[in-house]
Amino acid sequence: MLAGPTAVGKGTVSAWVREHHPEVWMSVSATTRTARPGEVDGRHYYFVSDEKFDEMVMRGELLEWAVVHNLARYGTPRGPVVAALDAGHPMLLEIDLQGARQVRETMPDALFVFLAPPSWEELVTRLVGRGTETDAERRARLATAKVELEAAAEFDVVIVNDDVRRAAEELVHLMKP
After folding, report:
1. pLDDT per residue over 11-29, tens digit each?
2. Residues 6 or more apart in contact with residue 142 via CB below 8 angstroms
3. Alpha helices of the chain — where are they, by DSSP H?
4. Average pLDDT over all residues of the chain
């Protein structure tokens, strides 16, 4: 399980793992937000309507879900995770802090990894540099990031994302028996 603040590089680290370690099963989250440029439905996220998300919640189809940055809902579909576990695959769930806390309740034996930025300044630079959010969205994400950074002690391992390849390899190493 990989979590960390906004713009820390969770998606970038996960993409590196996906490209270089195809043996690692990657969960795909559902979200009610719109796709960013280059994102593919079913690969990066399942982009669903609010109505579809409500149905998934009511049917118990999500392992965890949360409203993130007071903007959109994200959740991890339960079925694929259970199937991957049953098949014995090393797996990676990329989720937010709220989701990690929910999963800890139902899967306490999972390994919880917090991805941290090298510094607050670097986190701000990364968020501003990607240019995918409005000023209001950036302010909301940075406020959330401050709270999320304080939760690092809740995790089993903290990996500093100062180099994507190194951080990804450390993460994969932790998944191996």
Report:
1. 899 999 999 999 999 999 9
2. 6, 124, 127
3. 10-20, 50-58, 78-87, 97-106, 120-130, 135-149, 164-175
4. 92
Give the whole-angstrom CA distance, residue 145 versus residue 97. Answer: 10
Say how far apart CA 135 and CA 142 lie, in whole Å: 11
* Distance set, CA 68 to CA 33, 132, 148 (Å): 10, 16, 11
171 and 157 Cβ atoms separated by less than 8 Å: no
Q: Which tokens hold the place of 175?
A: 């998944």
The structural domains of the chain, with segments of one domain joined by +, span 2-175
Spatial separation of the C-alpha atoms in residues 26 and 91, rounded to whole Å = 6
Residue 132 pLDDT greater than 80, yes or no: no
> Distances in Å between the alpha carbon of 171 and those of 18, 69, 98, 156?
12, 26, 20, 12
Residue whose tokens read 């906004």: 6
- Rounded Cα distance, 24 and 81, in Å: 12
**Dist. CA 31–CA 53, nearest whole Å:** 8
Nearest to 95 by CA among 48, 25, 146, 26: 26
Cα–Cα distance measured from residue 154 to residue 5, given in angstroms and rounded to the nearest whole number = 14
| Residue 136: predicted pLDDT | 87
The CATH topology of domain 2-175 is Rossmann fold (3.40.50)
